[in-house]
User: Which sequence fits this backbone?
């Protein structure tokens, strides 16, 4: 099912559903803070006074309090949002691109190519993604951000490729495809010009849900020390740092945790609403 | 049926072989080999590292390494752990029971509580209760398991002192204590890890059950059952449930990876002596044979789970067998 409506009317349709509206507002606020917030906040890595200003509870100067190293928790949550959203967005862009490409090729060419690709995808799907990531990431001492994004992206396309393949199999005998073929269109043109635009609906849903998955995975990896490297702030890393003081200074851990929860929940609710919007059969 | 079963078995075997190939080459894809980091970490001389590389066979051509490794795996030999200096299989065998206990209880809760909640939602769909249950289960699904585990441990175990925060046994309890006291002790240690894992994983069961039941309820045979004057509870239990159960059964490919992922974090947070904490520890110490062994076992379980649910599905639903 393609996106027959314009993006504007799609958003308008989502806006009419209370849960999707709440998700859009939440994501809007988090994104706006991630983009525009840092100039108005202290440096997330600054440690102004490790002795005197460590573990201050939320108050006037520090709305979310400070951590053991006297860093401002709000500045770190916002800085973490910037990195988490950027990493998740770019990683999903990579995985959706690969997934769409593999799915198109497998579904349209069929035969041995399809069989080989789908057997590989099946095997890859059997290995929980976290374990693939652990194996790939454990070698690095300090993984560069670009490498982390690339690894998260290249491990997330298996499900998407199956989805796109299914759509292609459904569409490939439709009149608009056979018509293009009869007119002598080359295979690449049929795939990218005629089939790909008709898979944008499911792709958009998969991408949205994929963002939630990557944010959770990245937080987990950062918690294990394998994800985003300090001094860059990350939500998972903050929760790890705050482990020892969770009982005495809960704000150091509660706020990054709530940030993950709010972002992932909003993304998943939005993904659900989108899947209803692009495929009315499901709603 | 037997031809179908044979084909499905063959497919599972092919998948397993491909999983092993993928895992091996994934690890070798990373820059450097597991030993190249030792020089920086433990100040070994180049000669010592070279000798170790020879001992672990890392100086051989990669294809040869693969066949040596795969041959070992086929014989049930997963290599020797670098950190523990013991066979990986014996380490895994030691840790597997704790993980099966934890995972088994989580599955039991997910499939009783989850199916029940999903049914409640389907029967009352569109009501406030339905919306709230959806919101709560989705919120659980969006929580990082390690964060929820830490918060629960801090609150329930450390602040309120109601339950133990870590491990599986109370070390102060003598091993010759009555069985019921030992069982109670393990049970007390299980509460928080189970609560954490159920919270982050139950949403998928609830949602699938809700959707499956909603698809079945408008069908003619349900209408007919109601028209016969059967009480609603009987219509649900005897008629609707039977068919709504199928889609949920096939979720194995979905919830096994979720559970495995959750176990890594939850076991690490609660120091539960299972496979998950073993894998998390192997990451910290860069223990590649151990990491590979656990990844391979977990993937094999996923493949096996998929196979078993497909077979169960075919046994229960003749439409699949003959299709």
Assistant:
């Amino acid at each position: 099912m393609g996106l027959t409506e314009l993006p504007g009317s799609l958003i308008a349709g989502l806006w009419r559903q209370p849960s999707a509206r709440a998700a859009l507002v939440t994501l809007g606020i988090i994104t706006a803070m991630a983009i525009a917030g840092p100039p108005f906040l202290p440096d997330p890595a600054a440690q102004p006074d490790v002795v005197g200003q460590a573990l201050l509870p939320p108050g006037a100067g520090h709305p979310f309090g400070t951590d053991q190293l006297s860093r401002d928790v709000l500045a770190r949550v916002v800085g973490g949002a910037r990195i988490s959203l950027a990493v998740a967005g770019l990683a999903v862009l990579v995985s959706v691109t690969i997934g769409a490409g593999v799915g198109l090729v497998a579904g349209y060419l069929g035969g041995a190519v399809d069989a080989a690709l789908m057997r590989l995808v099946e095997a890859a799907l059997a290995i929980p993604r976290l374990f693939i990531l652990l194996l790939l990431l454990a070698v690095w001492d300090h993984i560069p951000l670009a490498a982390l994004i690339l690894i998260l992206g290249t491990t997330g396309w298996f499900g998407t490729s199956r989805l796109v393949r299914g759509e292609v199999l459904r569409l490939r005998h439709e009149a608009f495809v056979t018509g293009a073929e009869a007119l002598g269109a080359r295979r690449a043109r049929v795939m990218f010009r005629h089939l790909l635009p008709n898979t944008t609906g499911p792709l958009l849903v998969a991408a949205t849900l994929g963002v939630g998955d990557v944010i959770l995975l990245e937080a987990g990896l950062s918690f294990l020390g394998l994800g985003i490297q300090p001094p860059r702030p990350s939500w998972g890393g903050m929760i790890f740092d705050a482990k020892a003081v969770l009982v005495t200074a809960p704000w150091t851990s509660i706020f990054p945790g709530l940030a993950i929860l709010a972002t992932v929940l909003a993304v998943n609710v939005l993904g659900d609403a989108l899947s209803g919007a692009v495929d009315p059969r499901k709603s | 049926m037997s031809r179908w079963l044979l084909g499905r078995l063959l497919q599972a075997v092919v998948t397993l072989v491909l999983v092993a190939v993928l895992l091996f080459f994934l690890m070798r894809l990373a820059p450097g080999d597991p030993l190249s980091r030792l020089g920086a970490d433990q100040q070994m001389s180049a000669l010592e590292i070279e000798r170790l590389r020879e001992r672990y066979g890392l100086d051989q051509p990669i294809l040869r390494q693969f066949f040596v490794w795969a041959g070992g795996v086929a014989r049930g030999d997963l290599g020797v752990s670098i950190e523990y200096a013991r066979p990986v299989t014996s380490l895994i065998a030691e840790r597997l029971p704790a993980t099966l206990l934890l995972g088994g209880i989580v599955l039991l809760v997910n499939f009783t509580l989850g199916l029940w909640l999903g049914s409640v939602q389907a029967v009352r769909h569109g009501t406030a209760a339905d919306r709230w249950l959806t919101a709560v289960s989705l919120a659980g699904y969006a929580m990082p398991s390690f964060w929820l585990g830490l918060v629960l441990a801090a609150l329930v175990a450390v602040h309120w002192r109601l339950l133990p925060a870590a491990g599986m046994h109370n070390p102060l309890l003598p091993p010759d204590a009555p069985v019921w006291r030992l069982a109670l002790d393990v049970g007390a240690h299980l509460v928080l890890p189970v609560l954490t894992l159920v919270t982050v994983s139950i949403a998928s069961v609830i949602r699938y059950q809700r959707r499956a039941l909603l698809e079945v309820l408008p069908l003619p045979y349900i209408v007919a059952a109601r028209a016969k004057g059967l009480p609603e509870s009987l219509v649900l239990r005897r008629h609707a449930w039977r068919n709504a159960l199928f889609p949920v059964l096939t979720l194995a490919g979905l919830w096994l990876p979720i559970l495995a992922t959750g176990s890594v974090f939850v076991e690490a947070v609660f120091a539960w002596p299972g496979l998950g904490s073993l894998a998390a520890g192997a990451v910290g110490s860069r223990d590649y044979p151990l990491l590979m062994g656990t990844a391979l076992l977990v993937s094999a379980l996923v493949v096996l789970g998929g196979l078993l649910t497909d077979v169960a599905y075919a046994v229960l639903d003749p439409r699949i067998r003959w299709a």
Chain A has a mean pLDDT of 83. The radius of gyration of chain A is 22 Å.
